[in-house]
Every structure is written in C-alpha cells, then in structure tokens.
Amino acid sequence: MTRFKTLEAKSVLAQAEMWTDTHPPTLLTPAEVWNMALLSTCNLESYKDLAGIRGVSDRTIAAQMRSARLKLEARTNLFAVAEALRRQLIPSFERWEPGLSQAQIIPFPLDRAQAHKA
C-alpha cells in the first residue's frame, strides 16, 4: 500500500470513528462500521491492508466482516420476507389460539375455481 493510500485510509478511519461516536450504530458494531467505511471508500486490496490501518490482526478483521455479513444478510432476508408478505407473494400464517385446529390456522392458497366461488 502506498503512503498516500495509507494516509487517506487513516483519515477515513478517523472520520468513521467520529461518526460512530455521535451516531451509535444499532445493527453493526462500531468496528464493523469502520471496516465497511474503509473497504467501500479506500479501495483496499485485502483484509491485511485493513488490519494494518486499524492496528488489529487479520483474523480479527475476518471475524468482524463475517459477523457484519451475517447481520446484514439476516436483515435483508427479513425485509424481503416482509415485502413478500405485504405483496401477498407468500401465504401468511395466523397465530394459534386455543381451540383452533391446524387447518384453521394455516390458510392454504385456493385454486382459481375455489377463488371465484368465494
């Protein structure tokens, strides 16, 4: 990594640290936010470069990035499911209440002939 690239990355890291001090992240940890900011802004070539800028080990960076990826994927999947439910692309399930049979809880999709009768 060139000296200029290193100085640029340290500047971005300082800005990211100040930002997380004033805007505490809710989904990701501050370190995960810093990693994402550096990777998306500074065009770093590897986690080794990122570890050198942050002053931590490659293994720490890899663990933080894996954690961030899993959190973001889970949140994305939740939004996708919520949107599919809203658009009625997948069936919705009601909560079970005492006295209901399973057939009453799970609404099965009707075929076209039954839908016209209903």
Instruction: Sketch the major β-sheet.
Output: none
**Annotation, overall tally of beta strands:** 0
**Domain module tally:** 1
Q: pLDDT under 50 segments (min length 5)?
A: none
What share of the residues lie within helices?
55-70%
- Tell me the Rg in angstroms: 24 Å
Structural class comes to mainly alpha
Percent strand equals under 5%
Distance between the termini: 68 Å
SSE arrangement, N to C: HHHHHH
Describe this structure in words.
- With 118 residues, this protein is an all-alpha fold.
- It has one domain.
- Helix content is 68%, strand content 0%.
- Helix 2 packs across helix 4.
- The radius of gyration is 24 Å and the shape is elongated.
- The mean pLDDT is 81.
Quick description:
With 118 residues, the protein is mainly α.
Keywords:
mainly alpha; 0% strand; Sig_transdc_resp-reg_C-effctor; HTH luxR-type domain-containing protein; 118 residues; elongated; 68% helix; WH-like_DNA-bd_sf; DNA binding
Summarize the helices and strands and which ones pair or pack.
Blueprint: H1 3-22, H2 30-42, H3 47-54, H4 58-86, H5 102-105, H6 112-117
Helix pairs in contact: 1-2, 2-4, 3-4
